[in-house]
Amino acid sequence: MNYQELVEKIKIWGQELGFQKVGICDVDLSAHEQELQRWLDAGYHGDMDWMARHGMMRARPHELLPGTIRVISVRMDYLPPEARFATNLADPSQAYVSRYSLGRDYHKLIRNQLKKLGQKIEQEVGQFGYRPFVDSAPILERPLAQKAGLGWTGKHSLVLDKDCGSWFFLGELLIDLPLPVDEPSVDECGKCKACITSCPTQAIVADGVVDARRCISYLTIEFDGVIPEEFRQAMGNRIYGCDDCQLVCPWNRFSEITEQEDFHRREAFEDSNLVTLFLWDEETFLKNMEGSAIRRIGHLQWLRNLSIAMGNAPFSQSIVDALQTRIGLTEVLDEHIHWALAQQQSQLPLSSTKLNRLIRIVEKGLPRDA
Q1: Which residue of the set 26, 47, 91, 135 is catalytic?
Q2: Same domain, 148 and 100
Q3: Which of 81, 255, 301, 311 is most buried, judging by how many CB atoms fall within 10 Å of its CB?
C-alpha cells in the first residue's frame, strides 16, 4: 500500500467533510508526562476529578485504544459572523457567551464527521482499527495537534495557527495504520504576553499553564458550586466561558468566519439582555438551549452565572425585581443572588428609601411585599 498517497486522500476527504486542516502524528507524548503530572499535583484541574483519575493515560493514546500507532488530528473553525465581541462585552446589561457556544454543540458534529472519515479510509484500505474522539476521552489533544502540524500551544494553552489564529475546535481519529507523519508546528508567540496580562482573573500562571480554579470558563461551566467572591467582579457579564485571551491575541487578526452554519449565533441569543435570560424558566431554558453545549450546565447554574453578571451591572430596578423572584431555590443560588442584590444596593444613594428596603431584603431575605 502506498501510504503517502493515502495521506493525500485523507486530507482531501477531511476538507470535503468540513475540516479546515488535517494533520497526522505518532502517539509518543512522553515528553508531556512530567508537565501533566506537575499540573495535576498543583491542583490546577480544580474539581475536574476525571483528569487526575485517568492519570498518564491522557499522554498515552495507545493505552486508550490498544493498537493505535497514529493520530489524525483535525481542525474545524467556529468563529461566527456578527460575533459582536465589543457590543456584548462593553454593555454590562448584556450577557456575554463564549463564541464557541453561540450555536450548536460541536462534539456530536465533529465526531460524526470523524467517523465518516474513518469509514472513507476503510472503504479504501479494508477493515482497520480506528476510533474518533472529541473531548470524549482523556487525551492530550493540543500536544497531538502540535505534533500533527495544526499549530502550536500558545501561552494561554490554546492551539494557535499563524494562518488562522485560535478560533477552532479540535478532534482526533486514533488509527492503527503506519501513515507518514507531518512536521510539528513551531512556537510563534515570541515575547508576546497579551493573553497573560489580559486575563480578568489572572488564571494564566505561567506560559502555557492555566489554573482552572481561577479561569472564568471553568468557573462558569465546569464548576457548579459557590464561586469565590474574589472572582465575581472580574467576571463582569461573562455568563458562559470567556474569550479575553483570544480577543487580544495578534494572530487572531487572521481568523476567518466559519462556513459551518451550525456554529452561527442561535436565535435565542438575539436578545441577550441579562434580565430576559434570567427570567427564562427551566422549560424555556431547555427549549432555547436544545442542541447547545450550554444545556449541560443546567438551569440553576445558568441562573447562578447570570446572578453574578446582574450584580456587576449598573443599578436597575428590573434587575432587583428579577433577582428576588429566584430566592429560595437553592442555597448555592441564594448565595449569589444576595451578593448581586448587595452589589445593586451599593450603587444607590445612601438617602434613598429604596436602599433601606433593599437592605431588609438582602439581610433578612424578606419578601418584596414585606
Answers
A1: 135
A2: yes
A3: 311
Residue 214 annotated as part of some ligand binding site? no
Residue 158 known to bind ligand = no
Residue 313 belongs to what domain range?
Answer: 273-370
Distance CA 110, CA 145 (A): 15
| Complete DSSP assignment for 5-54 | HHHHHHHHHHHHTT-SEEEEE-S--GGGHHHHHHHHHTTTTTT-HHHHHT
Looking at the structure, tell me whether residues 164 and 289 fall in a common domain.
no
The reply to whether 283 and 252 lie within a common domain is no
Q: Which residues pair with 96 in a beta bridge?
A: 238
Does 30 count as an annotated binding residue? no
- 25 annotated as ligand-binding: no
Tens-level pLDDT at each residue, the chain (370 residues): 899 999 999 999 999 999 999 999 999 999 999 999 999 999 999 998 877 777 787 788 988 899 999 999 999 999 998 887 777 888 999 999 999 999 999 999 999 999 999 999 999 999 999 999 998 777 899 999 999 999 999 999 999 999 999 999 999 999 999 999 999 999 999 999 999 999 999 999 999 999 999 999 999 999 999 999 999 999 999 999 999 999 999 999 999 899 899 999 999 999 999 999 999 999 999 999 999 999 999 999 999 999 999 999 999 999 999 999 999 999 999 999 999 999 999 987 655 555 566 666 666 655 545 4
Is 176 annotated as catalytic?
Answer: no
Q: Which of 269, 290, 324 is the last residue of a domain?
A: 269
